Amino acid sequence: MKKLSILLLGLFLVPSVFAADLVKAKSEGQVNFYANITAIQPIVEEYSSSQGIKGIYTRISTSKYLATILTEHAAGKLQADVLQAPLPVMKILKDKGVLVAYKSPSATGYPDWAQQDDTIVQFGIEYVAMIYNKEMVKPEDVPTRYEDLTDPKWFDKIVMPDPSLHATTITWLVGLKENKIFPSDEAWLKFVKGLAANRPMFVKSFGPTPAPVESGEKHLAISMPKYIITKAPAPLDWARVDTLLGSPRGIAISAKAPHPNAARHFMDYWLTRDAMKMLADKVGEYVLAPGVFPPIDGISDVKVLPIRELSDEEIHSWGNEFKKIFYGK
Amino acid sequence: MFKKPSLTFSLILIVGFLTVCPVLMLLFGSFSEGLTSFGSFTLDKYIEGYTDPILREVLLNTIIFTVGSALVATTLALFLAYVNTRTNLPFKFLFSIISIIPMMIPHILFSVSWVLLLNPSNGILNRFLMQMFGLDGAFFNIYTLPGMILVEGLLDLPIAYLIIAPAMRAFDVTLEESSKVCGASVLRTLFRVTLPVLRPAILAAAILVVVRSLASFAVPSVVGMPGRIYVLSTYIYRSISSGFAADFGKAAAIGMSALVASIALIYVYRYLTSERGKFVTVSSRGFKPTLLDLKQYKFPVFLIVGLLCFVLIVLPVLVLFYTSMLPYSMVPSARAFAMMSWNNWIDVLKDPISLLSIRNSLTLGVVGATLGVVLSIFVSYVIVKVRSKASGILESLSFLSFSFPGIVIGVGFMWFFVQTPLYGTIWALLIGYIATYLPYGVRPISSAFVQIHDHLEESSRICGASTFYTMRRIVIPLLVPGIVSGWILMATMFVRELSLSVVLSRPGSEVLAVQILHFAEDGLWGKLSALGIMMIFLSSTLVVAATLIGKKLTRMEVVDT
């Protein structure tokens, strides 16, 4: 009955959530989508086939995202109609005048904090969790609290992005403190130092974290639960804790979009329940469309909170602090 | 031969335009506030970059890493080039191809293969050795400086091999015979005659490897970072990655030290090879390279070369193949073998973007290498035969883009091309590739030029031949081994190029390395390995075709003694 209600609601809502004019959008022929989010080709293809407007997906890694967009923007050659990136990056783009205000009706029902900005809509959270190899970690050893990672039994068995340079990991560690996941700042610092004492192996980002866990080189990773979907049938699971934290992902329209109607239409489509469900089902993303969860056991029950976005100055400063703790320098 | 000053000037203009523009943009960026190439003047990026207390340790690591890699690559290349070109070792053709296979593998994949083999927790080779010798702990730890040097040395082996082998092939054996007639032993002849005569090629190879390893990012990030060992390229990565707003101007400021080091190395090379008459082995006196009969050592040498090639090159490729057949990363076991399938291969072959990227990379490899080699022939001629101050400038210019760490130079090209109508097209990739990797064509062809005596051209001219006739009938045929090496180096590089492609490639101009990077970022190691092996197959086909065409074209007569 619940599923039927959602289906009926979906059927009722979908035609009405498009504010953009489909005829004008179709006359523009195509829409260019610049994004750092991975594996979204199926959604773009579905958009092209169902809406009759060619979606072109340009994937740009986070480290080169701002450099590319700002260079193209300054030269008047930004081809993007719609842009997607972590929220702090989107805010920089907004400050530089790259984005234009647009309130998509498809965001109705999203949390208030996700749509309070007149330009950027937050549609998902890049959620971070402890993922582990089910064949290497006994059920009784699986962490149930973040503090469990400081147990010496995890010495040389953890892999994580370098906490002195990976912005999302730095933000996550600071988020654990600011969101009072630990009873006090002292307890948080003890956790950070305990984690460092277990000498985790560092990689440059979340992307390379699952491979050493799958192969058994390491037993546990500070990583993203979405890999349980994208790496299936690898024996991965996530450690159930009360709260997960992550950086919000944002989407917005380019101020000088070559296809402005198609841009609005695409953004309306992107924020629909159907598109967000595809993102959750196929890529394992945590999305903010109401009632949509990735098909990972237990994820719908956990509290997932957005972390306050840190400025680059704060990231540098905290990165240096973590360098002292993790590198002993 | 040509009107030398005008040729030199024209080449300085062409090469300068190709290589100076992106470097100039980076230079502007390094002195500009903000994140783009043009902003208010500031020295802050240099001050921040060069006053970091960790820099001293980073520079020391960098020196050990680059010099160590050059030693490994050059020594192995010398040995393999000698047995492959100067002896009657069986299956030489196969060993020649194996020696350059690392050139065809995406560096990130080769590095990951070695991690799977030699990581201290469950590396396949380590587990094998532990079981065999009953050891408690791992025998090797790849996450160390020696581990980094081994992998980088192997990855750069083809560069050294493709520069040394043509010189070795063109070596006039009468020089060695004269030494032996005078009573010198084999070793004395090797150290007093063979190696000194090959000095330009050996130095060229070593310098190119130093410069390349200075710019290398895959090995320092995959092998070095987990071991917490930082070299210049990963230090630059650190400086731009701790934050969302990556400051490539600051990265360029730090990268300038790599540029200065590379240019200094080129001048050292020119100084050490300044008496070029010493290195001429192909003169008008009659030239006949010969093969050394290994006699009773044939089988032992075959075993040594075979084992070296298997462990150092074939085994990592087998690990790639194994990974491509698995649904996820697993150490070898009965269960792993039971789960093997062709699914990753089928997925890749059904993926339209992967297929488009194969087509684009193949086109760029063939067309780019051909154009690059033509330009390299003229540049090499000026560098070796004209040898004026202007030719020294030309040589430095040819190294300019190449010397910059890969993660920075791509942005330099983006800053440059965005000012032109070529931005976002496949032509930007083609021009960027040739400009950056010109030394891959210039170095082997220069080494071959060094060995050709001026008398040959003069004789042709005296007989009434025109400049182009002399070039076509005398010089080019003698240069064929160098040209083939240059073409192979360029073509295989272009097929797997990432640094420029990752910022210049756009929908429609996707290339293999970028598609591989996307698979890596998604952690899809099976598909990544499958596409990587397709890339190796593609490059191997180009290498075999180029080698066969080269053999057909060359007029050299090789006889057994």
Secondary structure blueprint with pairings:
The complex is a heterodimer of chains A (329) and B (561).
Chain A: H1 2-13, H2 22-28, E1 30-35, H3 41-51, E2 54-59, H4 62-74, E3 82-86, H5 87-95, E4 99-100, E5 121-133, E6 158-161, H6 167-178, H7 185-197, E7 201-203, H8 210-215, E8 220-223, H9 227-230, E9 236-238, E10 243-254, H10 260-270, H11 273-283, E11 286-287, E12 303-306, H12 312-327
Parallel strand pairs in A: 1-2, 1-3, 6-7, 6-8, 10-12
Antiparallel strand pairs in A: 3-10, 4-10, 5-8, 5-9, 5-10, 5-11
Helix pairs in contact in A: 2-10, 6-12, 7-12
Chain B: H1 4-30, H2 44-50, H3 55-86, H4 92-99, H5 107-118, H6 124-133, H7 145-169, H8 173-181, H9 186-197, H10 199-215, H11 218-224, H12 232-241, H13 248-272, E1 290-291, H14 298-324, H15 334-338, H16 343-350, H17 352-386, H18 389-403, H19 406-417, H20 426-436, H21 438-450, H22 454-462, H23 467-496, H24 501-504, H25 512-521, H26 525-553, E2 559-560
Parallel strand pairs in B: 1-2
Helix pairs in contact in B: 1-13, 1-17, 1-18, 1-19, 2-13, 3-4, 3-7, 3-10, 5-11, 5-14, 7-10, 7-11, 7-21, 7-23, 8-9, 10-13, 10-21, 12-13, 13-18, 14-26, 16-26, 17-18, 17-20, 17-21, 17-23, 17-25, 17-26, 21-23, 22-23, 23-26, 25-26
